Structures
1.
Amino acid sequence: MKYELQIAHLYGDLLNTYGDIGNLLVLNYYAKQMDTQVKVKVVSLNDPFDPDEFDLVFFGGGQDYEQLIVSRDIQRKKNNLTDFINDGGPVLAICGGYQLLGKYYIGAKGEKIAGISALSHYTKSQINHRFIGNIEIENEETGQKYHGFENHNGLTYLGPDERPLGRVLSGHGNNGEDQTEGAIYKNTFCSYFHGPILARNGELAKRLLLIALKRRYPTADLKLPAELKIKPTY
């Protein structure tokens, strides 16, 4: 392989409830086609996060019990994760990971669970209700349509410096009110899509990998990886 990328899988031993680890399999699949070897390292409880060690971060979701444990531990990683994000490091955060990058979220029992405020959104909780079902959104920058499956109790509201991953065409999205789904801040991409998101939306996987490659190899000619054709998977 011509290139190499190191991916941090945040709390990968705890937050695997919804099979979102499949996103790592998809990143590896497309990376090979881009002449890139991907190495994945789980960064879990009590582990340091070194922003200089990693090229891309994946942060999945889980249930409230696991997220409460993660919420306490991630405060020790807060500064380095925030530095990675603000420096333009690519991040994919799904559901609980999405919520914990924000200011806070309210759990199903009404408890306020602290995020790290790396992003400016916050999340409330629905009472005896969840958003469940297929969802389709359109990214306003690229015109690409993303398909997925949502299953979340949270109602997330974006901050003024965030833009949505997409506008809802069908489904509920962040809160069922403003037709937004997910969030983009710098090179951090957040979503409630399970499934996993990248299996149905290869263009997003390619976008994340290209960002990581350009940061790690700033003088390399990445024309061929950039020209990789993504076959429809939906």
Note: The longest helix spans residues 202-216.
2.
Amino acid sequence: MITLDLEVYKAVRRIIVPADIEFTRLHKVLQSVFSWQNYHLYDFTISDDNNGVMVSRLVPLEEDLKYDENATLMKERTLSEFLPEYKHMIYTYDMGDNWEHEIQLVRVMEEHDKESPYLLEASGQTPPEDVGGVGGFVSFREIMLNPNHPEYGQMKEWAKYWTVELSDWKSRSRVIKV
């Protein structure tokens, strides 16, 4: 279960992924189910469930290592290296807006004979790219909920096809193609 806390509500996605999925592919899956456009930097941080101490921070690019000497490249690293030993991790997308998605292991399925990754369910619309983090999103959402707001037209044009509510087709169960 992946949860993005947006202060006014939570955007939640429940997915099934293979244990041996590489983090670079998991990133693409998360980009797909949260309707992100893969414009920004990202990382995965795994912490010890008992004491909160960081176990590992995985980054995609070698140049990211110069900002954190304790980070590790995620290339060829898989989810099964950390789960089920650790039940939580944080996927941060867009270091400017700082979208922190909490990933929680809900269940291990020993026998899964269907195609995956798979979206089980989705709730809560995700913000558009570059909206300015949680605070920016809350302000943006208030404007989008009020067609009489002086900035509504400008925001509507900027956000293009973004809607306040998650569309039915985005919330439907489906195989995630990445």
Note: Strands lie at 2-5, 10-16, 42-47, 54-59, 72-73, 88-93, 99-104, 118-123, 174-175.
3.
Amino acid sequence: MKKVGYIYDDIYLKHDTGIGHPESPQRLVYINRYLEPLKDKLVHISPRRATVKEITLIHDTYYPQEIMDFCSAGGGYLDPDTHVGIHSYDAAVMAVGAGLQAVDKILSNEVERVFCAVRPPGHHAEKDKAMGFCIFNNIAITARYAQSKGFKKVFIIDFDAHHGNGTQKAFYDDDTVFYFSTHEYPFYPGTGSKDEKGVGKGYGYTYNVPLPAGTGDDVYLQIYQEELPPLVKSFDPDIILVSAGYDLHEDDPLTYLEVSTEGIGKIVESILQLKDVPYIFMLEGGYNLDALGESVKLTIEKMLEV
């Protein structure tokens, strides 16, 4: 059995998205409830606060201060989808810190794989702006931090139903971080077409698989079992990071994909068989509470076994 870390903190429940918002604290309440039978098999890790310097590995230097000031003044909408409250800055800083802590715990050999159960999510956040429920780009910052700690080549896999525009943009001209995404298209946020492949020395290190509404298990498994492995093999990463968004599930209220819970399990299994390197899974989307809880439980079962 693999040593799997689970990073969570109650601060994430205090991020206030507003009444009726799909990205609610209940998402983590349900995940924790579903994980109850597995809790003794996991290494429980507390996140830490990311420093401004760490956040600005990806974001503009003034941006964290802007968010802090906006939240401490009472919060509100950062964009039409992204609402914050008085505790949201602290939650966002600790969401980033989960990824950093995951890297450190892997380096100290305490764990081999880590699941970060965080909110707010991150993959839509750009250099100087929040969008799509995301404030700081947790996975992109984790990638840069991992590189600062000696992981030279980072492969990011994003199976959220929405394209991770912020993550793609962060590494678009970079040949040391490979970004691979499967997502519903055309759909929010509008990016992620097949011909977005990177620029300059980063050309060929962005790989998008846009999928029409209604795409289900068969097509997904073909992509993850046949299309993805040669890319990982030729890139030969030192660590694999996963933007784990569970809104590709057939019961998700915000999207139109048709992937089953079992299908998600097989996608995760395929990812974990790609290479014998450390893995960090970072929670992104997923808005049907039971489907989310079941899917994360299945993900962690695979992380323990595969």
Note: Strands lie at 4-7, 43-45, 76-79, 82-84, 113-116, 154-158, 177-184, 206-211, 239-244, 279-283.
4.
Amino acid sequence: MNILAIDASGLSGSVAYISDYKLVGEYYICHKLTHSQTIMPMLEHLRSMIGLDLEQVDAVAVTSGPGSFTGIRIGVATAKAMALALGVPIIGIPTLDVMANNMTFTDKLICPIMDARRNQVYTSLYRWKENTLQRVEEHLAISIDELLEKIAGEEVIFLGDGVDVMRSKITEQMGNKAHFAPSFLHMQRASVLAHLACQAYERGEMENADDFVPMYLRKSQAERELEEREKGAN
């Protein structure tokens, strides 16, 4: 199968194309420009560089969240537009699942964290069991203190944009039980997304683009601020 993958759910942005589990090409950027400035040019450059015939695409994959509200909307809107134009299904993979799959075949607990502001993170927990990465916790939006309490005593590998924000607190509380992925494995990548989407495609786990809904875990900052203003007015 041929999968076109799009990620714009966090600080980084990337697109990739995979054919029968073989990565054909990937563009990745994590530097200043917004996803509205990078995603479509990356898609066009990728298509041009590898001579991609869009009619060969079997499905479009996208990171479904959690993460940046604006980024998720850009990525999902782009993926849905592509899927509808090509008449193919969409495959959504949770952003945290994509991040966790950067870490292969380790006996340590894997904990991706995305900065959710206000001392909170988007997170989940994963373990490799019988050569399969299994999620052992729900996708969560919780305080870093709650997370560290939940994983106390474990050997843990942390990755994600939340590491830069929370590293000192993690190290202070966990000491040498805390491990951090190298920078080139910190972020979610469209190549990993595409690989997971191939597996999902084989299992028949895909949706009509019109029906696809991203996962936010909590309300946006604008929605929360509006609720706070309304409460104050009352």
Note: The longest strand covers residues 22-29.
